[in-house]
Amino acid sequence: MMIKIERNEKCPCDSGKKYKKCCYQDPEKNAEILRAAARSATREEMAAMLSSPLKVYRLKVKLLRMGMQEIGKEISRTMELTGRQTLYDLHLAIQDAFDWDNDHMFSFFMSGTLFDRETEYSGDPLGGHIVTGLGVPTHPASKTELRDLDLSEDARFLYLFDYGDELVHELLVAAMRDRNDDDRDLPMVVDEIGTPPDQYGDDEFYTGAAQ
Ligand SMILES: [Zn+2]
Questions:
Q1: Which of 91, 135, 166, 206 has its CA 20 to 30 A from that of 28?
Q2: Helices 27-39 and 43-51, packing angle to 10 deg
Q3: What residue ranges define each of the domains in the chain, with the CATH number in brackets?
């Protein structure tokens, strides 16, 4: 880690107590402190990270194509997640919102370019890290929280589900805000446009009859 916290020093949470008598004893709080310590170059940076409120991300997920079939009309789901949720949580939320079967591996491409290995985060249906996947090992989706990604409003990235059938989705960060006490359990779908086709359906999307 970048910053080493001694057990006898004052707790970074500013309680005035010693670290070993304070957050060190609370696994959840301690995890936050160790995470901030690992990501900070200075104690000021660490303090700022620890005191910054958790963000809620509003993500608009649009289905772009299924296999070779481009989706001509808008089929989208807009959902909210907290910064503490992982890309695997986001995968599960998309699966649920589009009624996919969560039966294949997936990748997010944060650069917005399909198959860009440098910015690829992948996983299998149970959240495991794919070693073979599309080639070289990529970043693990289940160990990457949304707040790790430096997302900003209007950022766009891609989600590929099923490397064989290739269901390609575009994600847009539609809004970011501080989490507040009124927030219910996230993720939550907040807007729906269009009806997703069956994942394995013999319908218009596969016969080319889509309008
Ligand atoms: Zn503390």
A1: 91
A2: 130
A3: 1-52 (no CATH), 55-207 (3.10.290.30)
56 near 182, Cβ under 8 Å? no
pLDDT band for 211, please (50, 70, 90 cuts).
very low
Tell me, in angstroms, the distance from the centre of ligand 1 to residue 84's CA.
20
CA of 2 to the centre of ligand 1 (A): 19
Residues with CB under 5 A from ligand 1 (ion): 11, 13, 15, 22-23
pLDDT digits (tens, 9 = 90+) for 139-183: 999 999 999 998 999 999 999 999 999 999 999 999 999 998 888
Provide the phi-psi class of 37: left if phi over 0, else alpha when psi is between -120 and 50, else beta: alpha
